[in-house]
Each structure stands twice: as structure tokens, then as C-alpha cells.
Specification:
The protein has 362 residues and is mainly alpha-helical. 63% of the residues lie in helices and 3% in strands. The chain contains 16 helices and five strands.
Length: 362
């Protein structure tokens, strides 16, 4: 069963699923999805070559360009950031054990691509498994997701919490400050809830990054190293967080309390189909087919599009376009009654209407 395969994935990644994970996947596309859960060594190796190769060449080009001008280096950094996002998708697939047929090979490639993305492989894999097992569950928020409050929770919050929430949800914070914080600072620390092996992976990654940083600083100078690394990380991080944001914060999204939460519904209704132009789809490793990914994390990125087209049911899922996704910038709170995202402006209008209605009844 498809749901059993999802349960196996969560168990491998250290997460014990709830009853919803062992339900049958409603008969929808089970056979069509299962046949795409087989990793391809040739496709994986070619993806490594066409992602890591250009990224390393761009790094060398940026070193030389920076000797002339930062502004000459910047366009190269933007392109390099695109390749870094693609490398992150490889890292992500390794975490699900889907990129290569060998578990050991996934661990090795995952550790290497994790270093490139400044992210500890085992610790991130553990946290990401929690995300997959709780996505769309209002009673289990906070595991690898964007901080989201319901309308009622926001209205019942004290002024300090409201101010903090507004700050965190501001686009400049989410897509300019947060990316650098997440990859430069946050990933340097382990969760106190993480198993010992996962905590050790954070320490080992930090030591490896320190050694790599010292070596590159010695070779090209610490100023050049920091300028290039921070610029590429900032752009790639912004792109990555935008993708993650749109994948779960969109019109028609799914949230439910634990007693009503369902794994399949959370995958197909709570994860978007982000239909990007072909070039952007390539750089983002097909992760726009996020509904397929959440339905079956064992499908590697290079099979996602083919899987989507193989099952007629997926054709009924409404896609989000690049232009249409910009509406998500106004989504701030989840309205449980209406089952939609609302913005702060809508909340003010609703509050004003409510006050007017109360006054008229007096």
C-alpha cells in the first residue's frame, strides 16, 4: 500500500507516524505512484554532474570576477544560487532515501551536499521527517514549518506575541533575513529533542565547515570567501524559503485538527502544485510537484513530473502559477471557520464589522 510505503519512509527517518499514516491511500493512483519509487543510478549521477559541476565552476569564476568588482561577481552569484537550490533538492532526496538505490550512497551524497548547503544531513533528515508526518496538522505545528497562527489564536495573543508574529511574517524578514539566519546560525545548533546521533551530526558538520572555511580563506582571502558565500547563501536561501512558503501557504490549502487530520488529504490538498516555467522547474528540481512528493516521499525529484502525468487524478489538481503565487504574500493567518488563509487587513475589516454589529445590537 502507498500509505505503508509512506510509513516506512517516516520510520527510516526516525518518525513514528500516527494512525492516519496506515490508512489506505483511498485507491487513488496507488499503483501509478508505487512504480515511481524506484531510484535510478544513472539519472542520479547525471543530476549530480550537471548540478555540482557548474556550481564549482561558478565558484571559481566568482573568485576571479570579485577581483575586478563585486557587481561583476553578483550576476554569477545569482546563477550559482540557482544551482545551490538544485543541489539542496538532491540533499533533500537523499534524506528521504529516494535519490540513489543504495542507502549508504544516499548518506554519503547527503552529507556532501549538506556541507555545500551548510546543513547537517542527519539532523535535518530527522527534523524533515517530522514535517512530513505533521504537515497540515493544527495540533502539531512547529516541526520544520513557517510559524502559522489561526485567527482565534492571534486575537487571543498578547500584544508582544502579536508584534513578534507580525515581524516574523513580514516578507522582508521571511525572505531576506530569515534565510541567512536559518543556514548560517540556526543550522549550527541541534534540537534538544534530537537523538544523540543527529546531535553529533551537527557538531561534525560545524567542524567540517570551519575547516573548509579556513582553507578557502587561506586560498582566496577571508573577505572574498565571506562575500561570495554570504551572497550565494542569501539568494539561494531566499529562493528556497519562497518555495517552501508557497508549497504550504496557498489558496485552497489544508489544515485540520489531529482528530480529523488525514495523511493523504494533507498531501494532496495541503501541498501545492507549483507550475513553474521549465527553466525554473529545472533549477528547483521539480519540487513544484509538491503534492506528489508529500503523497510519496520515496519518489525522487527526477520522477515527480512523470508520476504527475501518469495518473489522470493529478490533472484535476489546480496548479499555482508563478504570477498567481504572489498572492501568498498576503496570507498571514489561518481562519479555521472559513478554512482559508487571511491577511491582517482582512482581519481588521472583520473586527470592524464585528464591532459595528455589536454596537447596533445595543
Amino acid at each position: 500500500m502507498l500509505a505503508d510505503s509512506c510509513m516506512n519512509t517516516m520510520s527510516i527517518n526516525g518518525f513514528r507516524g500516527r494512525k492516519a499514516l496506515v490508512q489506505q491511500a483511498a485507491g487513488v493512483c496507488r499503483d501509478s505512484v508505487l512504480r515511481f519509487q524506484v531510484a535510478s543510478t544513472s539519472k542520479a549521477i547525471w543530476q549530480l554532474i550537471n548540478s555540482m559541476g557548474p556550481y564549482l565552476l561558478l565558484w571559481a569564476a566568482m573568485v576571479y570576477a570579485l577581483q575586478v568588482s563585486y557587481w561583476l561577481m553578483l550576476p554569477l552569484a545569482v546563477v550559482a544560487a540557482g544551482f545551490l537550490v538544485r543541489i539542496f533538492i538532491i540533499f533533500h532526496d537523499c534524506g528521504h532515501g529516494s535519490f540513489l538505490p543504495s542507502r549508504r550512497a544516499n548518506q554519503i551524497v547527503g552529507a556532501i551536499t549538506g556541507l555545500v548547503n551548510l546543513t547537517p544531513y542527519r539532523h535535518w533528515r530527522w527534523q524533515h521527517a517530522l514535517h512530513h508526518g505533521t504537515s497540515g496538522d493544527l495540533d502539531h505545528r512547529g516541526a520544520g514549518d513557517v510559524w502559522t497562527l489561526t485567527v482565534q489564536e492571534y486575537l487571543q495573543s498578547n500584544p508582544w506575541k502579536r508584534a513578534a508574529y507580525r515581524f516574523v511574517r513580514h516578507p522582508l524578514v521571511l525572505f531576506a533575513l530569515a534565510p541567512l539566519y536559518v543556514f548560517i546560525v540556526h543550522q549550527r545548533f541541534s534540537s534538544p529533542r534530537a537523538p544523540a546521533r543527529e546531535r553529533r551530526s551537527v557538531r561534525r558538520t560545524n567542524w567540517a565547515l570551519l575547516a573548509a572555511g579556513l582553507l578557502l580563506s587561506w586560498l582566496i582571502g577571508w573577505q572574498s570567501f565571506l562575500l561570495i558565500q554570504l551572497t550565494v547563501s542569501a539568494v539561494a536561501g531566499a529562493l528556497g524559503l519562497w518555495l517552501f512558503y508557497v508549497q504550504h501557504q496557498f489558496e485552497g490549502a489544508y489544515w485540520a485538527r489531529s482528530e480529523q487530520w488525514d495523511y493523504t488529504a494533507a498531501a494532496l490538498k495541503g501541498s501545492s502544485f507549483y507550475k513553474l516555467p521549465k527553466l525554473l522547474q529545472w533549477f528547483t528540481g521539480n519540487i513544484g510537484f509538491h503534492h506528489i512528493h508529500h503523497l510519496s516521499p520515496r519518489i525522487a525529484n527526477y520522477h515527480l513530473e512523470e508520476c504527475h502525468h501518469a495518473q489522470p487524478y493529478f490533472g484535476t489538481i489546480r496548479p499555482i502559477t508563478l504570477l498567481g503565487s504572489l498572492k501568498a504574500l498576503d496570507y498571514r493567518l489561518w481562519d479555521e471557520e472559513q478554512q482559508i488563509y487571511v491577511g491582517f487587513s482582512q482581519l481588521k475589516s472583520a473586527s470592524a464589522t464585528s464591532r459595528a454589529g455589536s454596537a447596533a445590537m445595543r
